[in-house]
Write a structure and sequence with these properties.
This protein has about 400 residues and is mainly alpha-helical. The protein contains 15 helices and no strands.
Length: about 400
């Protein structure tokens, strides 16, 4: 068991990146607004996206190169488009997850949440990654995800004991506002598809640290991380359904404010002695996301720059400094535009999902992929249906949005 735990890494980093705003805010809000009525949506979208996330570590361990090298094989233009898209959204995504983390930290410390606290969180995460690099992130994420899982399960068990009238009746949204929420909920669950690119790079880093890493062990690692992500998504839906559903409280659309309301509502219903448990669950959720995104975005930008230039350039630290600085500037200068920036990033994530899905499928079924490591027929068929679903999903989102 200990040996298996040591081999885990990129899969838990995937969980850390995915279990963030989508879980703490979106999943909890789904439970708060619909009870357990949207469990079908949670299960469906995780099933649809599974192949495309799995193709990241599959391609990396089978070929010895990341998905970015694969995109380069498809044409330099593909890599340039990815570079531009990532450059245009990484600051907003980092600012969004950092602000929610800061809001929870402020609530836990009993101080007012301000832009300055967000800056402190951003600088703290930078210092942690700058000092420890990937090896520290690999080790620490095991502890963070374990703490997150335990504290969340304890909170769920206690919450279930306080409410006996839960119903598993599944529902469909009725109003346009409810449809907008459903689309956003499914779009960000368990995370944007470009996390598969991050995962392919993490898988290769893990291979450097542990040369005994195989495709089989890497896929097991991914499946464990994906399973944890799905399970905790269900847990947060249950938390919202038990504590917030029919509470009569009007919830904020701001992620940081909503997280504070969540913690406050738990305290009022369960007692002050449970404050620390739910606060730790919420804080570890967002710290894991803030750390992994701050590692991943500079990592992919540095790697993409190297591929586009045609020569190796060790500039991940430079990109980390750029991302941290840009994130801090958003808090200090562009805080008023935060809502618009998040909306733009959300739209781009939705619209690019079918593109990433198609590209990943093409790579794992292409000539460069060893035949014995290509996905089985059922997984390829599921991928085609998944791409059609994502295309329909994007079209629906545009129709509802405009």
């Amino acid at each position: 068991m200990v040996a298996v735990f040591k081999r885990l890494g990129p899969g838990l980093l995937f969980a850390g990146a995915a279990i963030g705003v989508s879980h703490l805010v979106q999943s909890t809000r789904a439970g708060a607004d619909f009870g357990l009525g949207l469990v079908w949506a949670l299960l469906l979208v995780n099933l649809v996206k599974y192949p495309f996330f799995q193709f990241g570590p599959r391609y990396a361990l089978a070929t010895g190169e990341s998905l970015l090298e694969g995109y380069r094989r498809m044409g330099k233009g593909v890599l340039i488009v990815y570079y531009i898209l990532n450059l245009g959204t990484m600051f907003t995504i980092q600012a969004a997850v950092t602000s929610v983390t800061a809001g929870i930290a402020a609530r836990l410390l009993g101080i007012e949440s301000t832009a300055k606290i967000s800056v402190v969180v951003a600088l703290f995460c930078f210092a942690v990654l700058w000092r420890g690099k990937y090896s520290w992130l690999d080790k620490s994420m095991k502890i963070i995800v374990l703490a997150l899982s335990i504290s969340t399960i304890i909170a769920v068990l206690f919450a279930l004991g306080t409410k006996s009238n839960l119903t598993f009746t599944q529902v469909l949204p009725i109003t346009s506002a409810e449809w907008v929420f459903l689309i956003a909920f499914m779009g960000w669950m368990p995370g944007p598809l470009d996390i598969s690119i991050w995962h392919s790079l993490w898988a290769l880093e893990k291979k450097k640290i542990n040369p005994k890493t195989t495709l089989k062990s890497s896929l097991l690692d991914f499946n464990i991380g994906y399973g944890v992500t799905l399970f905790l998504g269900l847990c947060f839906v249950v938390l919202g359904a038990t504590v917030m559903f029919d509470s009569g409280v009007s919830f904020s659309s701001s992620g940081a404010t909503f997280a504070g309301q969540l913690i406050g509502l738990y305290t009022s219903l369960m007692g002050n002695e449970w404050f620390i448990i739910i606060a730790i669950a919420a804080l570890t959720t967002m710290i894991s996301t803030t750390l992994t995104t701050l590692d991943a975005s500079p990592r992919v930008m540095a790697h993409t720059t190297t591929l586009l230039n045609g020569k190796y350039a060790k500039n991940q630290l430079a990109w980390m400094i750029i991302l941290t600085t840009g994130t801090c500037l958003i808090f200090l200068v562009f805080a008023a535009e935060m809502g618009l920036l998040v909306q733009i990033a959300t739209v781009l994530s939705f619209l690019t999902a079918p593109l990433y899905a198609t590209a990943n499928l093409v790579l794992v079924t292409g000539n460069h992929m060893p035949a014995k490591h290509r996905p089985k027929k059922w997984l390829r068929i599921a991928s085609v249906f998944g791409i059609l679903f994502l295309i329909g999903f994007s079209v629906t989102y545009i129709a509802v949005l405009f």
